[in-house]
Specification:
By secondary structure, the protein is of the alpha/beta class. It has 2 domains: about 90 residues, Leucine Dehydrogenase, chain A, domain 1 (Rossmann fold); about 140 residues, 3-Layer(aba) Sandwich (Rossmann fold). It has 10 helices and 11 strands. Helix 2 links the parallel strand 2 and strand 3. The longest helix is centred in the last third of the chain and has 27 residues. It is globular, with a radius of gyration of 20 Å.
Length: about 300
Amino acid sequence: MATEIVSGKNLQRTIVTEALAVASDLPRAPRCRLISVAGPDPMLAVNRAVHVRTLQTYGLECEDVHLPAETDLAGIEEVISVANQDSGVDGVMVLLPLPEHLSLADILPLIKPEKELEGLHPGNAGAVLGHVNRMPESPDVLVTEALHAQLEDIGFDLSNAHVVILSEASLLGENVLANLVQRAAGPASLPLTTTVSLVVTENPRAREIARQADLLVVSLENPGVVGADYVKPGSVVIDFNPTLIGMTEVEGEPRPILKGGVRPEEMDTTSYYSPAPGGVGPVMLGILMRNLIRAAARGPRQKADEMPE
């Protein structure tokens, strides 16, 4: 059985095009305020460029706010507060990575829930985790929604499947809020008959557990860790985190060299393989664009609801 390489570009285009069609009567293009803070990690420039490019590709407006490295939490709060009050801004996103003195867990609550685009605001995440009723205006959580969209696209049935999430202890500990959503919201959105195992590469049984997976989700910072010895023949493998391993030039322009936690050349026994980069990443960006478009579409309705009779 030949392995099918799953590209996220076409699915991204479908997701955004359908969202734009539903919101075709908007008086203006949806607008995102994209906030980043200068730091030493070169992945920031990569993330910033791909977000700006994707927004522009679909005709969505981007206000690219790049703050100096010494910006503290109060400085970011001031920028976010202005965006929260600006009726011309539909969504606010703070890009990773952040400098060491800043934490996304401290920043996310500063964004109005209706303008937060990743589904990670405490109010939005609470709805996803089932502690409160999920409101229609809650943005989709990028990680879980992108996974579901890609699995639906390839026709993978999660019922009675064994899902193994393979990560690293250091990566899971970096962001408490995102860790909570990925560990709890993911399983919460799966069928009750799905078995979910979370294992770190430091676990001596990591290979053994990974080989039991019908669906292996790999989220690693170290590139090229997962080979054929981690994979059950016929399974689906989704590689999540591309790591920057160098830079090159294409037609005189600097381009990043990215590599995922999976060794692609050893995935020939799988049924489907979603690589990093190029697999689930573009789908997550598509969900992000859809969240922004939906936030923009809610704006006029909310204003109408607030008008006195």
